[in-house]
Design a protein that fits this description.
Layout: E1 40-41, E2 50-58, E3 61-73, E4 78-87, E5 90-99, E6 105-109, E7 112-117, H1 120-124, E8 129-135, E9 139-149, E10 153-160, E11 163-164, E12 166-167, E13 182-188, E14 196-200, E15 208-213, H2 218-221, E16 229-233, E17 236-237, H3 244-250, E18 255-261, E19 267-272, E20 285-289, E21 296-301, E22 317-321, H4 329-338, E23 342-348
Antiparallel strand pairs: 1-10, 2-3, 2-12, 3-4, 4-5, 5-6, 6-7, 8-9, 9-10, 10-11, 13-18, 14-15, 15-16, 16-17, 16-18, 19-23, 20-21, 21-22, 22-23
Length: about 350
């Protein structure tokens, strides 16, 4: 493969409309908490068109780069996904052509064929694959083909320098923020403890989750709710409950500083299944996991539904339902269906976002 020009990260690509959705590093953990990663769906080429943002680093300098994604079904077999981004005066283009029936993979960088794969096993049962291509001497791109499902077909995702592209949220959700954000609290130490129990995050590897909150103790007094995600304790990132006891014990002074997910405090929202006439309404919620593994993302709210009559908003992340932490969108649906008439949600999200009614 001919060497391509080195990525110029001294100048960021213009992000265009929607710059305000760029995520920012968090004070303690230094992580980004994106709600959604940009992917392409082989059964929805039109819906796979869009753009997102990815970080590219070079010689210690980090830049946010805007990446445009295009997709098309060339015929009943071949599906094509194109990713394009510009840095300085250079434009880079990565194309994937995937034979959904034949199993073939062809990858092009700046329109030059750099990889071709055709295995008999992929013709029989295509279980997906991962492909890495070089972008000059210092950078690379990884294309992931995820196995076919009945709902979305094959799914395709590009990473640059190991970083996924953070999807720009379109449509009614565009008013919300792509980045979940963070906040810091200080819990006073006491002989009765902090007043909460924590478990490993069932939705991913980011942070640890508040499983229970005790009445009248420090956590409740500071506004901590079931489902809140602790990202760090006194500048130490926590993704496992193992070191927590030691971190709390070693924390200086009379308080324990914790960084929690969410730019504002999590809030309680109530949904009533029955309308004022006593008739059962459809729930009307579309849910999916977030890319960062924090909460269950609200992606759809149907008009005339119980969700539309509540204060839930597109882009909200559901942390707990009736003080139970869901472990997947299907689990969240199961909890909602089993719940009584009035359901309590603990959520984080942009309170200024516009609801759909």
């Amino acid at each position: 493969m001919a060497a391509l020009p080195k990525l110029d990260t001294t100048t960021a690509a213009a992000a265009g409309p929607g710059d305000n959705v760029l995520p920012t590093p968090h004070k303690l953990s230094g992580r980004r908490l994106s709600k959604s990663v940009m992917r392409s769906d082989s059964q929805d080429a039109e819906g796979s068109k869009g753009w997102g943002v990815v970080e590219v680093s070079d010689s210690g300098t980090t830049r946010a780069v805007r990446v445009v994604q295009k997709a098309e079904s060339e015929d009943f077999n071949m599906y094509k996904v194109t990713w394009v981004w510009t840095l300085g005066s250079e434009t880079y283009q990565v194309d994937l052509r995937h034979g959904r029936k034949s199993g073939i993979r062809k990858i092009y960088v700046n329109k030059e064929l750099v990889h071709r794969q055709h295995n008999i096993k992929d013709m029989v049962a295509d279980s997906g694959s991962t492909h890495t291509v070089q972008l000059g001497e210092a950078h690379d791109a990884v294309i992931r083909i995820l196995p076919k499902s009945a709902i979305s077909g094959f799914t395709y995702q590009l990473e640059i320098d190991g970083n996924p592209i953070e999807q720009n949220i379109a449509g009614p959700m565009a008013a919300g923020n792509l980045d979940i954000g963070e906040r810091t609290i200080e819990l006073p130490k006491g002989v009765n403890g902090l007043g909460m129990t924590l478990r490993n995050n069932p939705l991913g590897t980011t942070g640890v989750v508040v499983w229970t909150v005790e009445k009248g103790k420090a956590a409740e007094a500071c506004g901590v709710q079931v489902g809140d995600v602790v990202l760090s304790v006194h500048d130490e990132i926590v993704n496992d409950i193992g070191p927590l006891t030691d971190l709390v014990a070693r924390s200086p002074g009379d308080t324990v500083a914790m960084e929690l997910a969410g730019s504002s405090a999590s809030r309680k929202i109530y949904m009533t299944k029955n309308n004022k006439g006593g008739e059962r309404q459809p729930i009307g919620l579309g849910l999916q996991t977030t890319s960062c593994g924090i909460g269950i993302l609200v992606t759809e709210i149907d008009k005339g539904s119980a969700a539309a009559d509540s204060d839930l908003k597109l882009g909200d992340c559901i942390l707990a339902i009736d003080d139970v932490v869901p472990i997947a969108p299907k689990d969240a649906v199961h909890i909602i269906l089993k719940a009584e008439d009035v359901i309590k949600f603990n959520v984080i999200g942009d309170q200024a976002a516009t609801n759909v009614r």
